[in-house]
Design a protein that fits this description.
Number of helices: 23
Order of helices and strands: HHHEEHHHHHHHHHHHHHHHHHHHH
Strand content: under 5%
Largest sheet: 2 strands, antiparallel
Shape: globular
Helix content: over 70%
Strand order of the largest sheet: 1-2
Structural class: mainly alpha
Length: 559
């Protein structure tokens, strides 16, 4: 491919979905947008697959000398993002076919797509921030699309954390760029401690790391299925992309060790709360929190690596985890539109097998991308001594969580949207095969097939399946989760106005239902009204943070 063609292709990556999204301002053109959204990510996919080597372009008149381009890291993210946006748009075309607001949804989807794809090709701090902000704010419209009270509450929590994250990210970038004296050098040189803290806050909110995760389990159940797929598969990965772009690798051993601990806590916390959910999409949201914790461990290893070569290997392992999780989780989210309980015979089993394949990859069974990703982390020989056994425990925990998910989906009945089966099947196929197109994944297959590695990947499956089946029996089929989605936010709001939970009612046989006993023990605290009050509390905090950041920037500019 010629340099000129490559340059135009890179420009089209964010420009095409952005221009198409602006057509949503014209009511008469909105009917065309759902179909055009399917085509919009194709230039990005072509750029990721066809452009060889690094390419860059400067736009002096845009955003104080904007720079777009494609390098090794950006290519991996762009390939993932483009594939998932294609699948999500394809699914949305059929899923919302009878929705009178589908044109508005498609316009917002295109704007979020432009921002998400733009982060992969941004080569300067301001361009990255602009794309990040466009993606985040456009996604609010996807979360509140159906306009129900639950969606609006989820949207309020989401937008408050978005504002807080954008504020932290912008302030951190300003400090980092000022210290480095170059538009993109913060990723290559030491940055001030305050900038590091602000960047970590901004990227941590987007990645959904505990305790910054509360928007994820609220937004995913509220958004339509195709929006949930790209939210979890693509958009939360921008937190990792930003960290790789702007943090020095290696060079932050203390921060790296802290991130490893935070990632491990997120991995276990996501499972512990996720298994108590009854909405499959909320459960998958907590699974994403858990899996992003594992990706954070890979980033922490890169930050704390003793030399650049090992840091590069750790980054490759984190990227492999990113590809693996992105494709698998998108397939599972698109699968929540299925109704296996209403299918008969072979159709039911094919749907459950299709859901089981990406679930097996997340668990890390042999010959799956998950097994290769975890083997890549173990082969690094970095990190604390407990890391290898922890990865095995996390596999068992993931198996527990996904057995619970499959149990919920197995009993799901209803009417499937016509046309949505094909994009879901394509996502399952991609989740099984796409990762192997990346050379490091194919090269790591051999190390994941050694006898000790296979044994190490099989016993967590047995433990997780046994625990998952037992827990599904114990929890029963009640539609109300034991812990409300949003957990910390809901409990925090409930703590302000705590009231004693009602006692569990005995059954006719004089026994208290086992599930109600657990519910009473957990004292779930906040209900939806309390959640809304909590969101307003966060809003006050965000305004206060904005004032502090304004003072920070003023002092910076005056120095």
């Amino acid at each position: 491919m010629s340099a000129g063609t490559a340059t135009w292709l890179v420009l089209l990556v964010p420009l095409l979905p952005l221009l198409l999204g602006t057509l949503g301002a014209f009511r008469g053109l909105r009917a065309w947008l759902p179909a055009l959204a399917v085509l919009a990510p194709l230039p990005a996919l072509a750029a990721a697959l066809l452009i060889e080597g690094d390419v860059g372009v400067r736009i002096p008149w845009l955003l104080l000398d904007s720079r777009l381009g494609l390098d090794g890291v950006g290519r991996v993210f762009l390939a993932l993002f483009a594939c998932l946006w294609f699948l999500g748009s394809w699914h949305a075309f059929f899923y919302l076919r009878l929705d009178p607001r589908r044109g508005r949804f498609a316009a917002l989807l295109l704007l979020a797509m432009a921002g998400n794809l733009g982060t992969a090709v941004a080569q300067d701090a301001l361009s990255f921030y602009a794309a990040f902000a466009l993606m985040s704010f456009a996604s609010y419209g996807l979360v509140v699309h159906d306009g129900t009270p639950g969606s609006l509450r989820a949207g309020r929590v989401y937008i408050v954390l978005v504002v807080l994250g954008e504020l932290a990210l912008f302030s951190g970038l300003v400090l980092a760029v000022a210290a480095a004296g170059a538009p993109f050098e913060p990723g290559r040189a030491a940055i001030p401690g305050l900038a590091l803290a602000l960047l970590s806050l901004g990227f941590g909110i987007k990645a959904g790391l505990v305790p910054l995760h509360v928007w994820l389990p609220l937004a995913h159940p509220a958004a339509p299925v195709p929006a949930s797929a790209v939210l979890s598969g693509a958009m939360i990965k921008v937190g990792l992309l930003g960290a790789l772009r702007f943090l020095p690798l290696p060079g932050l051993p203390g921060a790296g060790e802290g991130l490893i601990l935070l990632g491990a806590a997120s991995a276990l916390y996501g499972v512990a709360v996720g298994v108590l959910q009854t909405n499959p999409k909320a459960l998958l949201a907590y699974s994403s929190i858990s899996q992003m914790g594992l990706i954070a461990i890979g980033l922490g290893l890169a930050l704390s690596a003793p030399d650049p070569a090992l840091a590069g290997s750790a980054v490759a392992a984190a990227l492999l985890f990113t590809l693996h999780h992105g494709f698998a989780k998108a397939a599972l989210f698109l699968g929540t539109a299925l109704a296996p309980g209403s299918a008969a015979g072979l159709g039911r089993w094919l749907r459950m097998i299709g859901l089981g394949l990406p679930a097996a990859a997340l668990i890390g069974l042999p010959l799956t991308s998950g097994a290769v990703a975890k083997a890549a982390v173990k082969d690094l020989g970095l990190g604390p001594a407990w890391l290898d056994p922890f990865l095995s425990v996390s596999s068992a925990a993931t198996a527990l969580l996904l057995v619970r998910f499959l149990a919920l989906m197995g009993g799901r009945s209803g009417e499937e949207k016509p046309g949505t089966l094909a994009p879901w099947l394509a996502s399952v196929l991609l989740s099984a095969l796409a990762v192997w197109a990346w050379a490091p994944a194919a090269e790591g297959l051999a190390s994941s097939l050694t006898a000790p590695t296979i044994v190490d990947s099989l016993w967590p499956l047995g433990v997780g399946v046994a625990l998952g089946l037992g827990l599904s029996w114990f929890l029963g089929s009640s539609p109300t989760p034991l812990v409300p989605a949003g957990d910390l936010l809901a409990f925090g709001a409930g703590a302000a106005g705590w009231r004693r939970p009602p006692a569990a009612a005995p059954t006719a046989a004089g026994r208290t239902p086992r599930r109600d006993l657990l519910r009473t023990a957990l004292a779930r605290g906040a209900e939806l009204a309390a959640l809304e009050r909590g969101a307003h509390i966060w809003a006050v905090g965000a305004v206060a943070s904005a004032a502090l950041a304004a003072l920070l920037l003023a002092s910076l500019l005056s120095s």
